[in-house]
Each structure stands twice: as structure tokens, then as C-alpha cells.
Request: fold
Amino acid sequence: MKSIIYSFILFYLAVSSLFGQHIPDTSILKIIAPDTFQAVIVTTKGEITVEAVREWSPLAVDRLYQLITSGFFANNCIFRVQPEYVVQFGISDNSEANFFWDKRPVPDESVVGHNLKGVISYARDGKNSRTAQLFINTKDNFKLDTIDYNGLRGFPPVARIVKGFEVVEAFNAQYGFEPANFQDSVMVKGNAYWEEHFPGLDYINSIEIEN
Reply:
């Protein structure tokens, strides 16, 4: 019976994600990701294929899988673009979705993988603060494996780009880090805030898991 219910949840989320983001119920938190899976990120600059590796950060990869299947990344702004450092995203246009995930952080895990060029890691700010934000390393950032940041050691990777890194390099970098200073406003107001104050930023249209 459990396997039937689990399969139904996955089917429901997969169908729902085709129609954009919705607010999930807490049953989504029971979903465990495969050991590895690939997903296609469709952006305003083109497509990127990534591979997630669960052993790098099991709880965070489970969360990534949950976020993707819920459609969370639909119309997600790529709000921080710093060439030769990182690209960051993970705030929804839907405030309810933001607060659903923000109230359910992922417990901390040790850094197992390495923050190499093209590797995607979870952003975190203090203990047990990983929720929905991710960053792509645009160069080898070895210091992010071990840096002491707000009492935590390093940033755990969850995935790596296997195709389309040139798309990352094409994202609009005119604002650099500046938009990241206004995340609280966007959590509430959505993409309208980005569009008013930082026009021209790129977006993730969707992320879909490949079968």
C-alpha cells in the first residue's frame, strides 16, 4: 500500500509541474530522490542538463527532487550573477511557495563533494538554513568546501552540469551581487520586484526531471 501511495504522489506532482508551480502539502517531504537523476533546466538563455548525486548530500538532494517535482523553479529569477564566482537562484514568484519551504529547512550535512566549476551547491546562512536556494559555481571554488561561514563549514554540493555550461556564462551579469541584497522583498512581492528594480535579469522557465 505504501508503494502505491508513494507512486501516486510522484504522479500527481509530475502532472502538476507541467502546469507550473503549486503549493504542495507536507506529503511531498516524504519523497526520497534516486541515487542519481538528471534534470533539464530551461532558461531564457537556453537549456542546461544537470546530474544530481544523492551521496553528496542526501537530505539536500531529496529536497532538490521535491522542489523540482513541485514546480518550484518555474519562473525563478537568476538574481545573482557574478562571473568567475557563482550564479544564484531559488526564490519563487509565489510568496506562499516561498514560505512553505522556508518553514521547512533541511538539516545540516557535511561537505562531501567539491565546489568545482559547473557544480551546483546549496546556499545556507547559519545552522539548518538550507531551504530552496542554490548556486552554480562558475569556476573552481575550493574555498567554498571548507570556509567557515556563520558557524558552518563549507557549502555542500548536490549536482553538476553535464551539458550547457555556456548557457550559464551567458546570463545577464550587469547587476552582480546587488539584487541579492533584496531577497526579503522578493520573498513577499515576487518577480515584480526584480522586474521593477533590476530589469533584464534572466529566468528559469522550468526544471524537469528526465526519465
Summary: Residues 84 and 138 are 5 Å apart (CA to CA).
